[in-house]
């Protein structure tokens, strides 16, 4: 057989090398943009980009848009998880159906990997993960704890508390999954004459618990819309001035601005990942009975619920920040899940039908799969 001259072999090899190099450069170019704009430049920004890029989905993966897919391999943990509060354990409270536990969120242009407890624990080894916010964020914390606790021996896990915070400790991983109660982020204090005063420009009493945390996820929206007898405050205070009347969305914007300033000034993006989960949908029409006996989500294509006003305010606040914060927008996906609420199957059924919180296992598990995806 005739031998092929070396110079004739070299040309196709060089061409193949060029194709591989071009493919790698193309993948780098298609990597996702930062969730919000950044300022500054130079070596520090390069370090921040390197730290953040590993946790960000690609540009064509919008976690907010997709559909719920029925998956019989779900839920990812049992309703008997000992860390579930009685209020959200819908089957324990008599709910007869269980299909609401078996829906998996699938974004349109990508797939969220199934939650892997052991891998998640490895990724947070020697780290602190903290969820900050209201009772719906607390339910997400319960969900996350239940997603991981079954793979940890009984004598190697424990729960501790410190003021408004609770922490689940995975001792062998030197890791903690924590919750910090701060539904308004800024400070709400009861002062003279038992008046509840919301300090729109004060946050340190809450924020002192967030220091030194490696992964922070925030939510704050629902409490800002409570009015009348459901309002959480009597008066506002800003720059030492007391006043009563203020548009709720203006107050929300002021509170978020205070939070954003604290994050910009006190956190290092090379050290801490920050995410903000938007408000989930409430199905409270007709005095909270809109979700009663609903057993299936809305799955038809083209359904586009109106974006809540809080989401618009939140986006504007995040876009003004220098610190890179990833927005986890769950507004549309949760609007489809009228079937996922406790309704009357709650430990507080005497208060009526609960169409704001979520059954566990259920919708918050998908938010935690998003969190897992962002840490890959």
UniProtKB/TrEMBL annotation:
Domain (Trichome birefringence-like C-terminal): residue spans on this chain: 112-372
Pfam short name (any one): PC-Esterase
Signal peptide start-end: 1-28
Entry superkingdom: Eukaryota
Single Gene Ontology MF annotation: xylan O-acetyltransferase activity
CC per GO annotation: Golgi membrane
Residues in Trichome birefringence-like N-terminal domain copies: 60-111
UniProt membrane topology term: Single-pass type II membrane protein
Chief location bin: Golgi
Location of the protein in the cell: Golgi apparatus membrane
Record key words, sorted: Golgi apparatus, Membrane, Signal, Signal-anchor, Transmembrane, Transmembrane helix
Similarity comment text for this entry: Belongs to the PC-esterase family. TBL subfamily.
Alphabetized PANTHER family for the sequence: PROTEIN TRICHOME BIREFRINGENCE-LIKE 36, PROTEIN TRICHOME BIREFRINGENCE-LIKE 9-RELATED
Protein name: Trichome birefringence-like N-terminal domain-containing protein
Taxonomic lineage of the native organism: Eukaryota, Viridiplantae, Streptophyta, Embryophyta, Tracheophyta
